[in-house]
């Protein structure tokens, strides 16, 4: 078997998330700088060893004040915890093109096991001769499980920031 190593193509990838704001609309954000390495045997996705990290200082919700608040000790505390990470522990094929990736997600100083649903597009060659693969990853986490507990109560009842974070990740990989 031949070992393959893959890295993220940052110009064709987005590490995104959504959270409820004021209990009725979603606010979207992303991390502008991340690293992904995947090693597998003969390009077989289910044999993948996955390592991911994001530079939390690059959080981007299209609002500078909110981004600075997210970087503060109320949320990510980037001074102490500049990266979040995910290390895959298993990849299981559910059906054609659909997989479940289990792994350990670390945010701040908390590590929890999570399961992510992943669509794998397979392998193809781009017009410049690069071998590429694509992943669409979705999942949900509770931000409070990772020590992201800041909130504000609304006058009408309820809270300003929802607990559930929906992950929406699009990754294009380049074979190294």
From TrEMBL:
InterPro entries: Lipid/polyisoprenoid-bd_YceI. This is YceI family protein. It comes from the Bacteria. Residues 5-174 form the Lipid/polyisoprenoid-binding YceI-like domain. Pfam families: YceI. SMART domains: YceI. Signal peptide: none annotated. It comes from Flavobacterium taihuense.
């Amino acid at each position: 078997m031949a070992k393959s190593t893959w890295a993220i193509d940052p110009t064709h990838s987005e590490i995104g998330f959504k959270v409820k704001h004021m209990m009725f609309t979603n606010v979207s954000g992303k991390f502008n700088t991340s690293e992904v390495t995947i090693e597998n045997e003969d390009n077989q996705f289910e044999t993948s060893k996955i390592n991911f990290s994001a530079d939390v200082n690059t959080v981007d919700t299209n609002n500078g004040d909110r981004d600075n608040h997210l970087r503060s000790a109320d949320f990510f505390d980037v001074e102490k915890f500049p990266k979040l990470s995910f290390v895959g522990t298993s990849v299981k094929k559910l059906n054609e093109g659909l997989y479940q990736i289990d792994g350990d997600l670390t945010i701040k100083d908390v590590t929890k096991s999570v399961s992510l649903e992943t669509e794998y597009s397979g392998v193809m060659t781009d017009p410049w001769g690069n071998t590429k693969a694509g992943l669409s990853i979705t999942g949900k986490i509770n931000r409070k499980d990772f020590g992201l507990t800041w909130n504000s109560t609304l006058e009408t009842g309820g809270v300003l920031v929802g607990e559930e974070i929906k992950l929406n990740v699009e990754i294009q990989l380049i074979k190294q």
